[in-house]
Design goal:
about 280 residues; alpha/beta; TIM Barrel; about 25% helix; globular; binds iron/sulfur cluster
Amino acid sequence: MTQGESGIDYADYSWGPWRGCRKIAAGCLHCYAERDMKRYGRDHSKLERASDATFYAPLARDRQGNFKWPPGSRVFVCPWSDFFLEDVPRGWRDEAQAVIRTRRDLIFIIPTKRLDQIESWHGEPNTILLTSCATQADVDRETPKLIEISRDYFPVKGLSIEPLIEPLIDPIRIGVTAIGELDWVVIGCESGPERRTCKLAWILDVIRQCKAAGIPCYVKQIPLPKLSQRGRHSAMIEAITSQSVLDWDLACKDHDWTVSRDPSEWPIVLRVRQFPKPRKEHARR
Ligand code: SF4
């Protein structure tokens, strides 16, 4: 992955110390990393360590000796792989950890579908650990594991519900019973030519449940009716009721929709972009 602006709205930079992965869940079906790597003529199934310039990108300095990535920036980790991929040599992760530890002034966001692999690796206080879920079964299976992971090592933990491909009955059930255990929920539809259906009503439901449980929520991208349809539905931009959202869903039938990452194009109720608050113990370190 090239370094620099992340292209991921909730992060300032992307950092890919290695690339290549293996599909393990329903959410992987149309893996965007695979698609991107194909475009660059790379084999997504082959694990490769990045060049040193990329591996140590968070430590790069400018001519004045200042870090190129300014303090306080959010860094998305492993956009073309999974940080906890089984095949990654332990030494690589240890080196990456040293980078994370050196840049305690950055916030490293680590999404993973492999919580089972974390046992042997202790995180750092400047990390946000997200477990990636696409279905209710993913949420039911992964959330308890996430909560069990020591808060000493991962003080901020949440769900990355991307791509959302089915309605979630109760996505934060565990968070509600163990209130305060989840710190963040990121949610979004699938992108790409083969994107699977995602309903705004499903996203709205997650937003409401987060609000009820006091969990910050970040809506990353939503389905949007194509331009020809959008004129007819322009009134929905100002929509504030769930009924309007249902109308919008009707306008996105089949594949006659595109993906929007621009909240100014969305119904107001969906313009939710909150970030996790640092925990007290996190702030002390
Ligand atoms: S875990 Fe992530 S990078 Fe790996 S195949 Fe699945 S979607 Fe792609």
